[in-house]
Structure to design on (169 residues):
């Protein structure tokens, strides 16, 4: 079977920024998606207050959550001083490889500074309305190196820089 991936970003209420990412695996044809088709993946190595808020909001709106890296030592860098996140990408890659035969839509999202503001039905509706195979989160500011700003094209509409939480090669 042929593997297809879709990535979609939708706006969710976030304490410091809005970041989400969708991946659909092994979709052979376009069809309406049921709430059971959605799985939320997040990386959380510590049980912070923000993480607990995230889980409460997920439970309130009836999302299915899979936490990656729980209980592991964080080796992804200190995001305030140097670029990091390699550990997060490796955990996501491993999780996606494990489920490559499943027909799921996967929402990959931060959990320390995000809460859900609507349920899976609304999220899936917006996903389908986008009619795009790949959509990334976007931000107003470039981080961590603002000197690279001039190397990015300007847009009439929308934000200019890919979100810092996901790199797709």
């Amino acid at each position: 079977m042929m593997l297809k991936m879709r990535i979609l970003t939708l706006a969710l209420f976030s304490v410091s920024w809005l970041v989400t990412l969708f991946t659909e695996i092994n979709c052979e044809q376009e069809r309406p998606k049921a709430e059971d088709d959605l799985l939320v993946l997040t990386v959380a190595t510590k049980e912070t207050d923000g993480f607990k808020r995230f889980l409460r909001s997920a439970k309130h709106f009836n999302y299915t959550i899979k936490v990656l890296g729980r209980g592991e030592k964080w080796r992804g860098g200190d995001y305030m001083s140097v670029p990091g996140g390699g550990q997060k990408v490796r955990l996501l890659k491993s999780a996606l490889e494990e489920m490559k035969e499943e027909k799921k839509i996967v929402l990959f999202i931060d959990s320390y500074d995000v809460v859900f503001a609507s349920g899976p039905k609304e999220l899936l509706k917006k996903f389908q309305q986008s009619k795009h195979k790949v959509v990334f989160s976007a931000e107003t500011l470039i981080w961590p190196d603002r000197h690279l700003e001039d190397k990015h094209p300007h847009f009439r509409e929308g934000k200019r820089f890919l979100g810092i939480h996901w790199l797709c090669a």
